[in-house]
Each structure stands twice: as structure tokens, then as C-alpha cells.
């Protein structure tokens, strides 16, 4: 007869533990959203949980997508998040051997960020400490957008698909 309340208390305890362990992940996302909101940056959250921002270069009649990863990774005790922006499509833009080597060389000259290939897309990626301030994150978004859009122009001319 007393087993039922004990069982309920055990289930409540487990539910509380599950809720408590879920809070940090939600808090991380809230940190990104609050930083973007603080800088007045409009965004949507995509299906992967990434923050999607569209930069509008009205003088050139172009736009550029930039994403802030909705998840973090731990590296030697540091919490890191990615800012990434697509710049080209490997097949469609003819990014092969020589072009890939040029991208590697260009990455060595970058002060912040590097070129990465994921699937069939070339991205400019900046690894960001999750403790970056809202203004630092905003600056990194600007750098990623401008760098990727410049490369997209170089690779595909007037196309503005990314």
C-alpha cells in the first residue's frame, strides 16, 4: 500500500533530474538569442537549431547567409561554437585540386576563420569561444558574411545563391 507513493516520488525525482539536465542546453541557446537580440540582429532558427541570419548588401544588390551553431563543443576545457557562411558549391563552382590548394593557402593568411568543405558546400567558418560578447559575436558574423560573399562573387560571378 505504501509502495505507490514511493514509486510516485521516485518518478518525480527522475523527472526533476531529467529537467535539470535539460536546462543547460536550453540556456546555451538563450545565450545566443540574447546576444543577437542585444545587437538588433534579426534571425530565425532552422531545423538543426542553428541561428540563421541574412545579411543584406543593398548597394551591391546581394544577400549572404550566416549561421551561428545552436550547439557547442568542448575542446580542452573550452566551450566553442561555430559561425559559418556558405560561399560556393564544390561541383557547380569547379572547386577542385588547384582551387582547394588556393583555399588552404588563403586560410593560412586569415586572422580569424578558415575555409571548410562540408558535403558539396564551401563554408567560411569561425570557431568562437561561447563566452564571446554580443559585440564580438556581431563582428564575427560581419567577418564571416563579408568573406564568404566576396568568395562567392569570385567563384560564381553575379550569382547570389548563398
Description:
Helix content is 44%, strand content 28%. The protein has 162 residues and is α+β, with helices and mostly antiparallel strands. Strands 1, 2, 3, 4, 5, 6 and 7 form a seven-stranded antiparallel beta sheet that branches. Helix 1 (3-38) crosses helix 3 (134-156). The N and C termini lie far apart (65 Å). Residues 1-28 have low confidence and may be disordered.
Question: What is the rounded distance between the termini?
Answer: 65 Å
Quote the CATH topology: Yope Regulator, Chain: A
What would the average pLDDT be, to the nearest integer?
82
SSE ordering? HEEEEEHEEH
The overall strand count is 7
Radius of gyration: 21 Å
The main sheet comes to: 7 strands, antiparallel
The low-pLDDT segments are 1-28
Structural class: alpha+beta
What's the helical proportion of residues? 40-55%
Q: What is the annotated CATH architecture?
A: 2-Layer Sandwich
Number of helical regions: 3
Overall form: globular
* Name of the CATH first level: Alpha Beta
User: Beta fraction of the residues?
Assistant: 25-35%
Write down the domain tally: 1
